[in-house]
């Protein structure tokens, strides 16, 4: 059986373009994009998912793979995959923003360590929030839902020259404001309580300077912050779950699934 070069390139394109969209998702997808997950594992997962969904995909465009149009299609697939994972990555950034605000209010701004998910220094207390958010994401099968949505997007947003429009990218930029909204919702109750405590210490130190209130104020603030986190943890998880759900709904709209 003779296979022409054009047919071979067509078979290659029908695999490469879906593979680029799926592998781009694993680059920015929460939990799976951390440094602790080897690149080899992410590539193997992308290959396996691509091979599984290939028989169900619609027909690929006739544009040559190694051409100007082929490069545009490749970039479109990368943008779609990166955007889907990046939206949920912004939802996880809500947790990081909240824990930094809480840690600074407690006086733990200098107690930092390297976050394995982002590779940057974050307050130690932030690891509690990151672990809780990651477990919630996996417990709700968020990773499976995101992969399923991306697989369905090949039918609603097929491989071709027409991918995301400029308006879609602007919607993505506007949705990034949810990082600050969600972060404030998570951190505001604890920050407000600690603010009143610090104000009371300030009034007491002015009333009786000889008591050295600030000498015992920092340990009390740290202990009170820990207690408030323990009390408010369930509510904070619920707020993060709402933000995560909003992110998945936004991804669904961006991929034309709804």
Describe this structure in words.
- Helices cover 73% and strands 2% of the residues.
- It is an all-alpha fold and 258 residues long.
- It has one domain (5-254).
- Strands 1-2 form a two-stranded antiparallel sheet.
The sequence of SSEs as H and E is HHHEEHHHHH
Uncertain parts: none
The helix/strand class is mainly alpha
Query: What percent of the residues sit in helical stretches (DSSP H or I)?
Result: over 70%
Q: Could you state the oligomeric state of the chains shown? A: single chain
Cross-sheet strand order for the largest sheet: 1-2
Any idea what the radius of gyration is? 24 Å
DSSP, total strands: 2
Query: What would the average pLDDT be, to the nearest integer?
Result: 80
Mind describing the biggest β-sheet? 2 strands, antiparallel
**Strand percentage:** under 5%
Keywords:
two-stranded antiparallel sheet; mainly alpha; 2 strands; 258 residues
Entry summary:
Helices cover 73% and strands 2% of the residues.
Q: What's the SSE blueprint?
A:
Layout: H1 5-28, H2 39-53, H3 68-106, E1 112-114, E2 121-123, H4 126-139, H5 142-156, H6 166-175, H7 178-207, H8 213-254
Antiparallel strand pairs: 1-2
Helix pairs in contact: 1-2, 1-3, 1-5, 3-4, 3-7, 3-8, 4-8, 7-8
């Amino acid at each position: 059986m003779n296979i022409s070069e054009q047919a071979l390139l067509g078979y290659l394109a029908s695999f490469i373009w879906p593979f680029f969209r799926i592998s781009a998702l694993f680059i920015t997808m929460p939990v799976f994009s951390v440094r602790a997950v080897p690149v080899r594992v992410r590539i193997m997962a992308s290959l396996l998912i691509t091979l599984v969904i290939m028989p169900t995909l619609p027909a690929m465009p006739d544009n040559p793979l190694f051409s100007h149009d082929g490069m545009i299609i490749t970039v479109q697939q990368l943008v779609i995959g990166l955007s889907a994972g990046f939206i949920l990555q912004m939802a996880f950034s809500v947790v990081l923003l909240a824990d930094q605000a809480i840690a600074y209010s407690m006086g733990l701004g200098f107690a930092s360590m390297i976050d394995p998910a982002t590779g940057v220094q974050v307050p130690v207390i932030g690891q509690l929030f990151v672990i809780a958010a990651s477990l919630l994401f996996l417990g709700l099968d968020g990773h499976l839902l995101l992969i399923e949505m991306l697989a369905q997007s090949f039918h609603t947003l097929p491989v071709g020259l027409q991918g995301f429009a400029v308006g879609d990218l602007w919607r993505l930029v506007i949705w990034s404001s949810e990082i600050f909204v969600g972060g404030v919702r998570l951190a505001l109750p604890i920050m407000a309580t600690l603010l009143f405590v610090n104000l009371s210490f300030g009034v007491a130190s002015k009333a009786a300077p000889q008591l050295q209130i600030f000498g015992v104020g920092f340990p009390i603030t740290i202990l009170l912050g820990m207690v408030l986190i323990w009390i408010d943890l369930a509510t904070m998880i619920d707020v993060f779950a709402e933000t995560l759900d909003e992110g998945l709904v936004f991804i669904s709209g961006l991929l034309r699934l709804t």
